[in-house]
Amino acid sequence: MHGTFANAAEFGERVFCCVQGIHALEALQTAGEENLAGKILVDKSNPFLHKDGNISLDPQYSGWNSLGEEVQRMLPRTKVVKTLNYLGYNLMTNPGMLPEAITGFYCGNDSEAKQAVAALLKDFGWTDTMDLGDISRSRYTEMLGAFWPAVYGSLGHMDWGFKLIRK
Ligand SMILES: NC(=O)c1ccc[n+]([C@@H]2O[C@H](COP(=O)([O-])OP(=O)(O)OC[C@H]3O[C@@H](n4cnc5c(N)ncnc54)[C@H](OP(=O)(O)O)[C@@H]3O)[C@@H](O)[C@H]2O)c1
Question: Domains along the chain?
């Protein structure tokens, strides 16, 4: 069964944004502000530009800005939580496939929404999670997302993640 972005946004209790980041705003606009109002939107997209086999963050969503913030600005009644954008799809719901616990970063403006997403991550098998703060922290998780081609270029696979060692 399939439907439109608006159908999915209206139906979903929690909605995931998994489209190409540079098209995320238009896709979410199509989904409908009203359909997403009051709901948690998990944004795992990256605003990448592709050129000559390389990727870079789209300048309009980097520096003192980020896609996560733009999404939250466009959908003020939606609780946007940015997470999972900085690691391979294979690990998002199965971080336990690696020999050590990696760190699941998330950020957003709504505390309850973040708690709900942290619980969801736990259900996915994440044992180490970290709240980075408000949605402006997307600037950093999106920069982390842009790091993957460097590691992928060396390892040739996506079976790796970040572990934050702290006191
Ligand atoms: N793959 C990973 O391991 C990974 C890891 C972390 C984060 N992400 C992020 O997750 C998102 C999806 O990544 P991906 O690997 O699936 O490949 P992608 O090429 O970045 O995105 C493909 C998806 O974007 C949709 N899309 C493209 N243009 C669109 C438009 N104008 N309007 C609406 N939807 C559009 C496509 O829909 P159609 O199929 O209908 O064309 C498809 O579902 C990206 O933002 C990426 O940065 C991916």
Answer: 5-155 (3.40.50.720)
